[in-house]
Amino acid sequence: MRKQFGMPEVEKLVNYYSCSYWKGRVPRQGWLYLTVNHLCFYSFLLGKEVTLVIQWVDVTQLEKNATLLFPECIKVSTRDSELYFSMFLNINETFKLMEQLANIAMRQLLDNESFLQDKSLPKPRRPLKNISALKRDLDARAKNECYRATFRLPKDECLDGHTDCTLWTPFNKMHIPGQMFVSNNYICFASRAEEACHLIIPLREVTIVEKADSSSVLPSPLSISTKSKMTFFFANLKDRDFLVQRISDFLQRTPSKKPCGIDREWKWNMADPSSEEVPELPSSSPLAVSPTSALSHRPVSFCAGQVPTASQGLLKLFRRNSEELSGPKGAKEKMKEESWNIHFFEYGRGMCMYRTAKTRELVQKGIPENLRGELWLLFSGAWNEMVTHPGYYANLVEKSMGRYNLATEEIERDLHRSMPEHPAFQNELGIAALRRVLTAYAFRNPTIGYCQAMNIVTSVLLLYCNEEEAFWLLVALCERMLPDYYNTRVVGALVDQGIFEELTREYLPQLSEKMQDLGVISTISLSWFLTLFLSVMPFESAVVIVDCFFYEGIKFILQVSLAILDANMEKLLQCCDEGEAMTILGRYLDNVVNRQSVSPPIPHLHALLTSGDDPPLEIDIFELIKTSYEKFGNLKADDIEQMRFKQRLKVIQSLEDTAKKSVVRAVSGDIGFSMEELEELYVVFKAKYLMSCYWGNNRAAAARRDQSLPYLEQYRIDMEQFKELFISLTPWACGAHTPVLAGRLFRLLDENRDSLINFKEFVTGMSGMYHGDLTEKLKVLYKLHLPPALNPEETESALEATSYFTEDVTTEETQEDKGKRNENGPEKEEKGTSPQDYRYYLRMWAKEKENKKETIKDLPKMSQEQFIELCKTLYNMFSEDPVEQELYHAIATVASLLLRIGEVGKKFSNRPTRKSEDCKANNTQDPVSEEESPTSEQSQNSAVEQQPQADHEDKTSVDAQPGKTQQENQTLGDGSGEGQGSPLQLLSDDETKDDMSMSSYSMVSTGSLQCEDIADDTVLVGCEGSSAAARYGSTIDTDWSISFEQILASMLTETALVNYFEKKVNILQKIKDQKKVERQFSSSSDYELSSVSG
Predict the structure, then answer these.
(1) Residue 90 to residues 26, 66, 74, 97, 130: CA-CA distances in angstroms?
(2) Alpha carbons 259 and 308: distance in angstroms, whole number
């Protein structure tokens, strides 16, 4: 497989299938290979070969359908094409695996979660033929995800196995058939009938597991007892002995220590609110208006339980009016509580409660306020995580207090916007509790940090739960129940919005077309889903929605949304624009009331939408919920998960397209490429980054991507990746010298010295070679032979580098900051957003703007050693060119002229004699390159001693030059008279030395130079015939220098050189060629498909 498709060894094959690929109307029988990162197909039939390679990250749609033309086929869509595969032996298995691999690729695009094989998978009890380890891994992942979603278990819970069985249910005295699931920490049961019974038994609660006597009525029974005095009877177990052994093994690993306070909290929740001795805290109490520091900046007090919200919800602290409790609403509330108490008696209480259709009916009628916090924790699964992580929240609060970053700033800005109409958040007690919970979560999950709408949801959680409970509910909400909702791009909400549109087309086809034209669904659904209707409905009604959501999940939010559209269908069909439709829906939601609520009504901010003509019709929340179940209750959680996958592909690829357009627009103003060329370059650049993520030897590339950065900064490549792109795209092909030139350009573009470049820096470098006039292209080539591009390792060249870069202070500060960050790693985040740093970045950006004013006069002069490197590069560039001989002759002429000009320029530098002595000292003290011999070092010193004599000889030789040369020298004198005090003139020898020794190059006389004589190691040195070679031997003249203007003027005299640099090259053709060979690795032919596992 690797040999066939040019894949490296690290690319792993998951499975392969026999199928047909439809090319036009002709099926091509072949093999479909599914690897971790690619979909590949190969067919060789009747002498015709078909090879396909598609990256999973490029797939925009994946669907299984059946048509007359393509019977039972799989359609794979990318941005460029649609591919059809059919005639599978097991199409369902193939499609399921393709979905998994495409989903892994989408996670990689979304949050850099690349595939890591699970090495801890247990070996199968029986050897499985033709199933690779990767296939087993992916199957196990799919089962784990389904298991965790069904029973709302923590994200790290792994299913060990499952078996068919029956469960004795004492409430109806029946044996219910279903399946038992066993994992590291839980035993779960799900009945075959969806609503019959669900059961979750944490192993931490189990006291006894024993085998009962078998009988014809009850074969192979198993009894499990818990600490809460409940006993569960399972029967019809096929392999009971093995199952008991597995459960015993897990029980031995389960810590028996139970966090203190759990029983106390539940008993406290069961108690009658009238008997609780909780001090009332009206808004005027001293504690309520205490300063922030008393609550939010004293984590020790919080951990010690001195903060009131550490032990109870805000509603218990801010007591409601006793008249409400004694009236008919209070009586109704008492009846609800009694109904739940009866349910607890029959079905059990706590995590081990039997969850049946009766439980759902009670939830639909509204959970009593005193039980709301407890039941939210149970139904969401947050209770499991809280119990298994005692003290986790208190430690997070302690660590996060006093720490500042971008998330904490956003939290502070939104604190007073969180339910400002509720009295609990009109004082510092509620605000401080909200601050602690949000800040703790931001530090727990920096990937999400803080997102708007989290404050609204968390404030409601704090009303009914203490801080720790609210924190774990927020964890369950953000990480399991509403995945990817609360990130910078709200991907999860956009995915469910797509599902909502799809369901509208299915259930309300007439309204769907109208809503699509108005564009309303995309506007309304985000606010509905992100805040669970809390921001669009009166609080007393929305909290009932939250009750049902914690029990049913996103399915309930979708069916209520459909019910709302259905109730307003006639009015919406008559709307003329989006604003009118929004007003109709806003008025409807404002008037959804909860007549059973015992809480005093809270003014709703959206009530301003209600017109003052006729009193609006009130809608009872419980009627709305009942209607939603009657009309749309047939929605299945499995179907929604399937739809989520389909929409996730569409949403993430749409976001990637948006990111591409944003980046292209951001860089197009300063770059010479067209929009089409920039888009193609972005695709290639991104593909190179992603390839390094899954084919690199380590995961450092994935760690480089920071989702919080702007789109332009998210994809960055290192030097090796840049070299690969440069070699395939550059118009300046230099043969074996090309990687060297690529490394220099990378160092030139990497202005912040982090060894990474973003897309703008990449296209800036490419544009310098493709666009602009001769002057701009030569300027790029000139810079590639000056520090920092030429000699990054040589620390002595720092002064020369800073004289070239105008932001010398910035560079020094950046290096110092790097050192400080390495020493003080934990303080990195604190410093990152301080006001002082903002000013620093503003100064840096201002200096970046100033750099754009650079002219050719700002470029530093080039030393003889650097000029020799430039000549070597030009020689390599011209090889294999159609007019190779003309170019060689032209560059030989120009180099000869420039060398003579450089000799003349030495007389204008006016360097003091003492400088020569310094040069001599430096030459004897500086470390010598490995290629330099002691002989060459001595000759270099002798050359410096002979400098005055050389100057005299140069004067004589220059006088004898032709008139053209004298005219050039006159121009030279005028253009390069920098003066004695110029920093470009006062460079010592060790500052102008290059990191590459030149002593190994052969020296030739430019006077007798022929194009055919230039070899790869040839260096052009000398002025008049062979006298220079005789005078200098194998040394470099350290006083020699040349300016960019002189090089430009000399180049313009040669037509061949001008034509070469002004020649237009089509980069789109280069990109097309690059795509053809990007996966053809030189080592790929060494690998064969030796096994299924690849």
Answers:
(1) 21, 14, 12, 11, 14
(2) 20
Amino acid 414 reads D
In the numeric block, the tokens 């087993």 are attached to 136
Could you count the other beta carbons within 10 Å of the beta carbon of residue 949? 10
CB-side neighbour CA atoms (13 Å) of 245: 4
Helix (H, G, I), strand (E, B) or coil at 164: strand
Alpha helices per DSSP H over 771-834 = 774-783, 798-804, 808-823, 828-832
Cα 749 from Cα 746, distance rounded (Å):
5
Q: CA–CA separation, 907 vs 77, rounded Å?
A: 70
Q: Is 574 helix (H, G, I), strand (E, B) or coil?
A: coil
d(CA 654, CA 497): 14
CA distance 1052 to 1054: 5
Any idea which of 371-385, 556-570, 714-728 has the lowest mean pLDDT?
A: 714-728
Structure pTM?
Answer: 0.75
The pLDDT value recorded for residue 80 is 86
Q: Contact at 8 Å (CB) between 762 and 717?
A: yes
pLDDT in tens, 745-772: 999 999 888 889 999 999 999 998 998 8
Which helix (H) or strand (E) element contains residue 287? none
Per-residue pLDDT tens digits for 653-699: 999 999 899 999 988 887 888 999 999 999 999 888 888 776 665 44
Closest CA to 602 of 561, 525, 529, 542: 542
- The answer to whether 228 and 349 are in contact (CB under 8 A) is yes
Query: Based on the number of CB atoms within 10 Å of its own CB, is 534 exposed (0-12), middle (13-18) or buried (19 or more)?
Result: buried
750 neighbors 757 (Cβ within 8 angstroms): yes
**According to DSSP H, which parts of 483-520 are helical?**
491-507, 509-518
- What Rg value do the Cα atoms of the chain yield, rounded? 37
Helix (H) or strand (E) holding 4: helix 2-5
Residue in the structure block whose two tokens are 């109307």: 25
**Inter-residue contact 576 to 641 (CB < 8 Å):** no
Residues 6+ apart with CB under 8 A from 1042: 861, 862, 867, 898, 901, 902, 905
φ and ψ of 849, to 5 deg: -65, -40
130 φψ region: left (φ > 0), alpha (ψ -120 to 50), beta (else): left
Helices 454-464, 428-444: crossing angle, 10 deg rounding: 120
CA 616 to chain centre: 47
- Looking at residue 708, what is its pLDDT? 64
Tokens of 1059: 């034509």
CB 197 within 8 A of CB 187: no
Instruction: Classify strands 862-863 and 1002-1004 as parallel, antiparallel or unpaired.
Output: unpaired
**Closest to 624 (Cα-Cα) out of 571, 566, 565, 563:** 563
Which of 452, 520, 534 is CA-nearest to residue 490?
452
DSSP secondary structure letters along 968-1022:
HHHHHHHH----TT-TTT---HHHH--SS--TTSEEE-STT--GGG--TTEEE--
The residue whose two tokens read 């609403």 is 329
Report the run of H or E that residue 261 belongs to, with start and end. Answer: none
Instruction: Look at the block and give the residue holding tokens 């109730």.
Output: 567
- Looking at residue 5, its pLDDT comes to 83
Taking residues 571-583, report their average pLDDT: 90
pLDDT averaged over every residue in the chain? 77
Specify the pairing of strand 38-45 against strand 26-35: antiparallel
pLDDT in tens, 179-227: 999 999 999 999 998 778 999 999 999 999 999 888 877 888 999 999 9
What are the two backbone dihedrals, phi and then psi, of residue 355, each rounded to the nearest 5 degrees? -105, 115
Angle of CA points 90, 95, 97, to nearest 5°: 100
